[in-house]
UniProtKB/TrEMBL annotation:
UniProt GO BP: proteolysis
Coiled-coil annotated spans: none
Gene Ontology annotations for the cellular component aspect, listed alphabetically: cytoplasm
InterPro entries cross-referenced by the UniProt entry: AB_hydrolase_1, AB_hydrolase_fold, Pro_iminopeptidase
Protein name: Alpha/beta hydrolase fold
Organism: Nocardia amikacinitolerans
Length: 468
């Protein structure tokens, strides 16, 4: 549908997109600045594509620029003015949108595209918007050993240096507004899903005069538990519902089996064969299970989730084959994000829950933080990469217990896990003394000195508040 809009639009891999953006023709577009042209009508719509040049880090032209690519799908009824322009974001960070133009149109249609335009923008660092590549493997990052994950993120930070400060949610929404301005669109209707419910409220905060209305689906809470224990509860609830609704298993027994399997994986990891062999540790199992239990369950649940109760019961009885099969299948699920950008935005937006200059080992800080956290007896689960989604009775954060938890409340954030909604709203700061009051895509457990605190989240911290 988008052939001819922007070179490289339908190339099959992110590496091909990178070459397209770096092609001589793309370089010529970069010199000319903003570029627009029409595409042939498709299914009753005309699609206008182009790019807008933006500084990578505002006020620091020496750090380079990025091209922000867009595709403007015009309404079917061109005889009347547009009733509005819908600007969606499907999630991420790191998910390109122009590549998925068919799905985007289907998601917002239902008659809306008869009189509304649809503005699709690839966030900086993804798809056609100067895709970021700092050496983080997209498909394999989730299953890498934690030490290797940490080294990978360290190398990414070292490679980017001061340019890392350009990859933030705040910079992304500023790009969106620059595209809106370039196209002469007075206001947009924001439609956010998943991470989009984190990103687009930032747009509304920074550019309130540009927003007509906003729809959020699957919204991140404005106040949230920094230990992410609700994720563990979500996994347990999903398993219980599978059993209750199918009648094929006992929900409480399945959750008990989950605790037992996690306890074993904590000390006795399980090798998993396949195209990409890896070792199934407690934290890796938690990550894979959380993704299966929460991704697309409302519309298109992954059938692999239904195999979990039987796999857990078999593992408790000594047969690990079904558990290995689940892990191999879950790990092979295609990754839709540019993980380089996913990691970079998370490291920038989310304040580390320990000081990068701490003299005490992180496990000791973790234990101390967990002892002071409300509800510490409950298990916490965390979003990827590699973080446990369901704990195994006792304390800790689900990845091998408290002794190996890496992200806990601490002085670096000046916050504790939210016990009373609304009690922890803070005014954003532009230094590293306090955390910005914004929701988080995932706790960046792998951040270290390669991501200095003062360049870690300054862009996000310019948001004054997330109070509705």
């Amino acid at each position: 549908m988008c052939k001819g809009c922007v070179e490289g639009c339908w190339q099959p891999s992110r590496r091909h997109w990178w070459r397209a953006v770096r092609s001589p023709r793309a370089a010529a577009r970069r010199r000319r600045g903003a570029h627009r042209r029409g595409a042939p009508p498709s299914e009753g719509h005309v699609i206008e594509c182009g790019t807008v040049d933006r500084e990578l880090v505002t006020g620091k032209p020496e750090l380079g620029d990025v091209q922000v690519a867009y595709a403007l799908v015009r309404r079917a009824d061109r005889d009347a003015p547009a009733a509005g322009t819908i600007l969606p974001n499907p999630g991420g960070p790191g998910v390109p949108l122009i590549e998925h133009i068919d799905m985007a149109m289907a998601a917002v249609d239902g008659g809306l595209l008869a009189d509304h335009d649809l503005l699709l923008i690839d966030p900086r660092g993804t798809g056609l918007s100067t895709p970021l590549d700092c050496g983080v493997p997209d498909q394999d990052f989730l299953t890498l050993p934690r030490d290797q994950q940490r080294r990978t993120v360290t190398r990414c930070g070292e490679l980017l240096g001061p340019r890392a400060a350009g990859y933030t949610s705040a910079a992304t929404v500023d790009d969106f507004d620059a595209v809106r301005t370039e196209l002469g669109i007075p206001k947009v209707v924001l439609y956010g899903m998943s991470y989009g419910t984190y990103l687009l409220p930032i747009y509304a905060q920074r550019h309130p005069d540009s927003v007509h209305s906003m729809v959020l689906s699957g919204a991140y809470p404005h106040d949230f538990d920094t230990l992410n224990r609700p994720n563990a509860e979500a996994v347990s609830l999903a398993l219980q519902r599978i059993c209750d609704r199918s009648g094929a298993c006992d929900g409480e027994a399945t959750v008990a089996d989950l605790r037992a399997v996690n306890a074993r994986l904590r000390t006795d990891p399980l090798p998993v064969d396949g195209e990409r062999p890896f070792t199934l540790t407690e934290d890796k199992f938690g990550s894979l299970l959380f993704e299966a239990a929460t991704s697309g369950v409302g519309a298109d649940p992954d059938p692999v989730l239904g195999t979990v109760p039987a796999a857990l019961r078999a593992a408790v009885r000594g047969d690990d084959a079904p558990l290995r099969a689940f892990a191999a299948r879950a790990a092979a699920s295609p990754v839709t994000e540019n993980i380089d950008l996913y990691v970079t935005v998370a490291c920038n937006d989310y304040p580390t829950l320990w000081s990068p200059d701490a003299q005490h080992p992180r496990p000791a800080v973790a234990v101390r933080g967990l002892r002071g956290a409300p509800g510490r007896g409950r298990q916490c689960g965390t979003r990827r990469p590699g973080d446990s989604a369901a704990g195994s009775g006792g304390g800790g954060c689900g990845h091998a217990g408290a002794g190996r938890a890496l992200a806990v409340p601490g002085a670096a954030t000046a916050r504790q896990p939210v016990a009373d909604p609304g009690a922890h709203r803070t005014s954003a700061r532009t230094d590293s003394a306090a955390a910005p009051d914004v929701p988080s895509p995932w706790p960046s457990r792998t951040r270290n000195r390669s991501w200095p605190a003062r360049t870690h989240w300054p862009a996000a911290s310019t948001i004054s508040s997330t109070t509705p």
